C-alpha cells in the first residue's frame, strides 16, 4: 500500500478499523474500498471521519480516500473484476468458507503483484493466511475464530474443500485462481 495510487479492498469492514490502519500507512493518493452489511456503513463512517482524539494523528480520514459499499462483498468484488479493477491489497475480516468459491472470487480481484490477508476455514478449524506473488507465496499467519462469510452468490459446492495446509493451499490457489481454473 505504500506506492502512490495503491488500492485496497476490505471484505467485511465492520467498524472500519482495518481500513483506517491501511490508510494510515498508505500515501495520500491511495484509496481503500470496503464492503459490509448496510448497518455497518454509518458506524465505519463515524469512526473514519469523526473527531480525532488527542494524540491520534491519522484521524479523521478524508472521505475521498475511501469508499464504503453496503451489501454483498462478493457481488462488489465480481463487479470490480468484471470492470477491470483489481486491487494491490485484499483483506477479509470474516472467514471464507472453503466449500464455496469465495476464495477464488476474492483472490481474482488481486493484482498479480498484490498481497492478500484472509481467514479461511470452517467453524472450529480456521486460520489466517498471507498470499502474494501470484499465489506462489502462501503463509499461515495464525489460527483464528471469526464469523463466517455468507453470500447467495457463493453457495457451497458439493465435494469442494479447499485445503488449509499452507503448501497445499498454495498449490490450490495456483491451480484454481491463477491458472486455467474455473471462472467466477
- Taking pLDDT < 50 over at least 5 consecutive residues as the criterion, the unreliable ranges are none
Report the principal-axis shape.
Answer: globular
Order of neighbouring strands in the sheet with most strands: 3-2-1-4-5-6-7
As an assembly, this protein is single chain
Residue fraction in strands? 25-35%
Number of strands: 7
Query: How does the helix and strand content classify structurally?
Result: alpha/beta
Notes on the protein architecture:
This protein is an alpha/beta fold and 184 residues long. Helices cover 24% and strands 30% of the residues. The protein contains 5 helices and 7 strands. It has helices at residues 17-25, 41-49, 73-82, 102-107, 166-176, and strands spanning 7-11, 31-36, 66-70, 87-96, 110-122, 125-132, 137-144. A 7-stranded mixed beta sheet has the order 3-2-1-4-5-6-7, sandwiched between helices. A hairpin with a 4-residue loop joins strand 6 (125-132) and strand 7. The model has no long low-confidence stretch (mean pLDDT 92).
Which features characterize this protein?
184 residues; alpha/beta; seven-stranded mixed β-sheet
Amino acid at each position: 500500500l505504500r506506492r502512490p495510487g495503491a488500492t485496497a479492498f476490505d471484505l467485511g469492514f465492520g467498524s472500519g478499523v482495518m481500513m483506517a490502519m491501511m490508510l494510515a500507512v498508505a500515501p495520500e493518493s491511495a484509496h481503500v474500498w470496503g464492503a459490509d452489511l448496510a448497518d455497518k456503513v454509518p458506524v465505519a463512517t463515524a469512526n473514519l471521519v469523526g473527531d480525532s482524539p488527542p494524540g491520534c494523528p491519522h484521524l479523521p480520514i478524508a472521505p475521498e480516500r475511501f469508499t464504503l459499499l453496503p451489501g454483498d462483498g462478493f457481488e462488489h468484488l465480481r463487479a470490480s473484476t468484471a470492470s477491470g479493477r483489481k486491487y494491490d491489497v485484499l483483506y477479509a475480516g470474516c472467514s471464507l468458507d472453503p466449500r464455496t468459491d469465495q476464495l477464488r472470487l476474492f483472490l481474482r480481484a488481486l493484482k498479480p503483484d498484490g498481497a492478500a490477508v484472509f481467514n479461511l476455514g470452517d467453524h472450529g478449524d480456521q486460520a489466517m493466511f498471507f498470499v502474494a506473488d501470484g499465489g506462489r507465496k502462501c503463509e499461515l499467519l495464525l489460527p483464528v475464530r471469526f464469523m463466517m462469510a455468507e453470500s447467495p452468490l457463493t453457495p457451497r459446492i458439493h465435494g469442494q474443500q479447499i485445503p488449509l495446509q499452507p503448501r497445499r493451499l498454495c498449490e490450490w490457489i495456483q491451480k484454481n485462481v491463477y491458472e486455467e481454473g474455473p471462472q467466477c
